[in-house]
Each structure stands twice: as C-alpha cells, then as structure tokens.
Design brief:
Layout: H1 3-21, H2 41-44, E1 50-53, E2 62-67, E3 70-76, H3 79-88, E4 117-121, E5 132-134, E6 138-140, E7 143-146, E8 149-151, E9 158-159, E10 180-183, E11 188-191
Antiparallel strand pairs: 1-11, 2-3, 3-4, 5-8, 6-7, 8-9, 10-11
The structure holds FE2/S2 (inorganic) cluster.
FE2/S2 (inorganic) cluster binds near residues 129 and 157.
Length: about 200
C-alpha cells in the first residue's frame, strides 16, 4: 500500500468513526477520543488487527470501529444492563448462542471476555443491515418493555445488549462476536487478534 493509499484509508476511517459517534443516539454525548482510536498504518491494511482505546469510554456508551471493512461495536454495559440480560431470556431465540459461531471466551451469558464490555460485529444476521443502538428502556414502537438493545430498521430484527436475537424476527442467529483480546493494562481492545484463544 502506497503512502497515498494509507492516507486515504486513514481519512476514511476517521470520517466513519466521527459519523458513527455522532449518531450514537438521543441524549448520548459525543465520545471525546476519536483520535485515540486511530489504528496504526499496519492495522489499516486489509485484515490487520485494530486497536481501540477504551480508557475513556463511559458506561452506556459505544464506540464503532472498522475491522476488515465491517463495523465493530465496543459497548460499555452498565451494571443495570448486565442485570437486565437475564430478564431478556424468555424473549430470546438462542440464549446460550448454541447456533452462533463465536470464540470460546464469549460462550457465557454476557458473550464477552469482560462482562461489562461487549465487542460484536454490527451487522444484522438477516440480510446485513446495520442495527441501531437503542439503549432506552420502556415501551418503544417496536417492542413493549424494551430493556435496551439493538434494533434493525430494515426488517425489524431485535437483539439484546449481548447481541442475542429475539424470537419471531427475521434474523436467524445472534450477532457475531469477532476474535479479540485486551492489552495495555486492559485499556485497549485488540480486534482481530486473540492469540488463538478462540
Ligand atoms: S437485515 Fe436486519 S432485519 Fe433484515
């Protein structure tokens, strides 16, 4: 990749990150550390791992980065979010993620290495739209007693805050968990690299 190509890729990444951060949702503040999410030139090349600094991410907030041309969400779930995961189970199609391919370290109720941080590919498992992050709680137009999750506007699929799909929606399986790991005192998530732990 030439220097010019790297510059173009960097610009694309920053534009994407800024755009997505700006659409996190009503009431959510802009995440103030877009610059710290910049991947290295190595990470910008196709398939390389992408590092995400989560040291300033606040509970309830999400950052979006691009890995292998896909959006990956890193969501800092609140204590309440984690408690609510169990309440969602009667409404979910695959509580234990039996039908989803995912790393072994995500085979748990919260589908993550650390309970509070969800790392998931932000692509609907129906036909590939990007679901919206809907952290609100209450009766929403698409679901009564919503406890926060992800809603796909294309055909109405719903996922909880662990990316688990609801019953009776078009999406057949849970959202996909990518390989990832932590580094730098657990302040950085490395997406695309898990040292073979999967
Ligand atoms: S692409 Fe998400 S519901 Fe169809």
């Amino acid at each position: 990749m030439s220097e010019q190509d790297v510059d173009k890729s960097r610009r694309r990444f920053l534009t994407a990150a800024t755009t997505v951060v700006g659409t996190i949702g009503a009431g959510a503040a802009v995440v103030p550390f877009v610059g710290s999410m910049m991947p290295s030139a190595r990470a910008l090349s196709a398939g390389a791992p992408v590092e995400v600094d989560i040291s300033k991410l606040e509970p309830g907030r999400r950052v979006v980065v691009e890995w292998r041309k896909k959006p990956v969400w890193v969501l800092y779930r609140t204590k309440q979010n984690l408690e609510d995961l169990a309440k969602m189970e009667p409404r979910l199609a695959d509580v234990e993620s039996n039908s989803s391919r995912q790393p072994s370290y995500a085979k748990n109720k919260h589908r993550s290495i650390k309970p509070e941080y969800l790392v998931v590919i932000g692509i609907c498992t129906h036909l590939g739209c990007s679901p919206q992050y809907r952290p609100e709680v209450g009766d929403l137009s698409f679901e009564a007693n919503w406890l926060g999750g992800f809603f796909c506007p294309c055909h109405g699929s719903k996922f909880d805050l662990a990316g688990r799909v609801f019953k009776g929606v078009p999406a057949p399986v849970n959202l996909v968990i990518p390989p990832y790991s932590y580094t730098n005192g657990d302040k950085v998530v490395v997406i695309g690299e898990d040292g073979g732990a999967a």
